[in-house]
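Q: Structure for this?
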Amino acid sequence: MDEHQEIKALFYEKGREEPLSKVGWWILLRWILLGVTILAGLTGNFLLNLKLPLAHILLLCCLTAFLNALLHYQLFTLKKAPSFEFNLVDRITYIQFGTDLVFIAGIFNDTGGIASPLLFYFLFHVILSGVLLERWACFLYVSLVALMILTLSFFEFIGFVPHVYRASFISKDLQDNPFFVFFLLFFFLMVLFISSSLISTLLKRLRERISQLTELEEKLEDTNHRLETLNLIAVKTATTLGLTPRLDLICGSVRELMGVKGVLIRLLDERTNRLEIVSSCGLSDAYIKTGPIDLDKSYSRTLKGKPHVVLDITSEPSLQYPEEIKKEGIVSMLAVPLQGREKVIGTLRLFTSERREFTQEEIDFVSALASQGAISIENARFYDVLKRQDEAKNDFIILMTHELKAPLSAIQGLLDVMRKGYVGAITDKQKELIERMQKRIDSVLELSAELLDIYKWQSKGVIDMALTSVSLKDQIQKAEDLFKLIAQKKSIKISYEVPDEQVNVKAGEEELEKVLNNLISNAIKYTPIGGNISVVLRLVDKQVTLRVKDNGIGISSEDVPKIFNEFFRTKEAKVIDPEGSGLGLPFVKKIVESLGGTIRVKSEKGQGTEFMVTLPRI
Amino acid sequence: MDKPKILIIDDDADAVELIRIALEANNYDVFSAGNGTEGLALVKKIRPDLIILDVMMDSATEGFQVSYQIKSNDPKSEYRDFCRTPIIMMTGISQQMHMKFSPTQDGDYLPVEEFLEKPVRVDPLLEKIRKLLKR
C-alpha cells in the first residue's frame, strides 16, 4: 500500500460516509453549476443580448445533467449497499473528472475560447482535482486541461475549429493578436500548474499531519490504557495483602496488556542463588515444572538491572532450559528485572509464540510495571515479616505474663499463710502490711490476666470461645449474688429487671460472665456512695439487649469515643482506681463483637453512664 | 482416727510449701511430689485420701495425664484402687484450654472432683478439702 492509499484508508476508516459524501457534494455542486450555467446563458442572451450559442450550451448541459443523474443514482445505491469497494469510488471520481473536462471544454469553446470569462471554471476544477486526486493524477489532469486549451486555441487560431462566439470584454483585435493569445495562455497555464502544485503540496502536508495526529492519538490511547492498567495494578496490589495473589495479578495483567503467549515471574532466592518460579500464566505445567535457574551455572543479564530481548530463542546461548522453551512453542522473549528498592529481586519474562520485536516503549512500559510489581512484592514480604514478628512478640508477651503469674501466685499464697497465722502469731500492723502486699499483687495478677486475654485475642484475631447456649438470666443471677456484698458496702442500690421467659444466647460462658461482671463492677466502681445502678435485660425481636446504667461520675464527651481503646483511661477513672489497666472495656467489646453483637455507650459527665449490649438470641 | 493423708503434686516448691503449712496447721498429713512420675509412685506408696494436682509441670499438660491415669476406667489399671480418690486440680490453664472438670472421663472433661484457680487462697482450698473428705 503506498502512502496515498494508506492515508485514504485512514480517511475511509472514519466510516464510509466520508468518501461518499465527497462524491455527493460534488454531484450536488454540479447540479448547481449546471443551473447557474443555464441561467447565465439565458440571462446573457435574453437580457444582455450576448448572442451565445444557446442551443449548443443547453445540449451540453442536458448531456452533463443526464450523466450527473446517473452518478447521483449510483451514489444512492452505494449509500444503501451493505459494503462497497473503494475502487468504485475512485472510478466514479475519474468519470466525474472526465465528464467535467469535456463539459468545460465545450463551454469554453462556446463562450469565446481563451477570451471566455468562464476560464476560472478550470481553475476551480484544478483546485478540486488537487483535493480529490492523487498527486500524479492531478498533474495529469492539469496537463490534459492545458493540452486541451492549447489545442482548442490553436485550432481556433488556424481556423480548424470555428470561433463559436467572439463577443467578450476583450477586443476582437486583441483576441486575434498571436502574442496576446500566447501570453494569456502562458499565464493562465502557469496559474493552473502553480495552483495545482500548491494545492497538492499543501494537501500532502495536511494529510501527513493528519496521519501523524492519528498515529499520536493511537499512541496516546495506548499509553492511556497502559497507565490505567498500571494504576489498576497499583490499586489492586495495594489492597491484596498476600504475596501470591499479587504476583498472579501482575502476570495476568501483563499478559493481557502485551498480548503475549505467557508471562513468568521468578524471584531470587539469595540463600541458594537461584531464580525460582513463583507465578506464571499462559504456560504449560510441564514448562513451569522445569525448575529454578541456577545463577552459578548461567548468567542472567536481567539481574544486572537491564531489560533483555531475545528475538529467536533458538539462537540464545545463555538459556538454561532451551529444550523446554522450544517445546513450549516460544520464539521471542522479553526479560525485565524486578527492580526493588535497593536491588533486583527477580525477573519478569514475556514469551511470544511468534517472532516479535518489542518496541522501546513496550520495554519501558513493562519495566515500569515490573518495578512497581517489585516494590509491591517487597511490601508483601515486609508485611509477612512484620506479621511474623508481631506474632512472635505476642507469643513472647503471653509467655512472659504466664511466667510472671506463677511466682506472684506463690507469693500471694505464702502471704496468705502468714496472714492466717499458720507460721506463728503476727501483730495487727504486720497483718495490715501483708494485706496491702496482697492487694498490690492482686492488681498485678489482674492486669496480667487481662493482658493475656488481649494478646491471645490479638495473636488469633478472634476470641477463642467454647460456644454453648448460655442463659443470660442465670448469669445475671450469678452477678447479683457476686456484687450484693460489694454494693451494700458502698450503699449502692442495684435493681435487676429480667423478662419472665428464658433468654439464651450462644456464647462462651466465662466470656459472657466477664462482660457482665466488667460492666457491673465498673458501674459500682465509678458510682459514688448511695448511687443507683440498674441492670435491664430485654428481648427485642431476635435480639437480646442488656443495659447497665448508673448515675455515677460519667464520661466527658471527648473521652466517650476512646473508652474502647486499649489502655485508655479517663482522668477521673485514674483518680478513683489508679491501678486499673484500661483493658477491661476493649476486651468486653471484642467479646461482644465476636458473638455477633454490638456495644454502645451513652454518657454525660457527672450524670452517669449507660452501656447497651445487643446480642443475637437463640 | 489417723489424720487424712493429702498428696500435693506440684513442681513449684513455694506453692507446695504454702499449702503444706496451711494444711498441716489444719491437721492434715501432707506429702508432696515435684512431678507426675514421682507423684504417681507416691500415690501407690502412701495411698492418699486426697490429691492436689497442678497441671503445668515438666510438660504443659502433665497434670491432665496424671489425672487420667489415676481415674482410669481400665480394670487392669495399676491405680484401680485410687479411682475414687478425690482430686483437686489447680491451675490457670483451664481457661486457655477450655477444659471443664467433671467426675466422668469423656471428651473435653477432666476426671477431677474439684478445680481451683491459681493463685491458691487458703480458705477456699480448705473448704473444698473438707467438702470432699466428708463423703
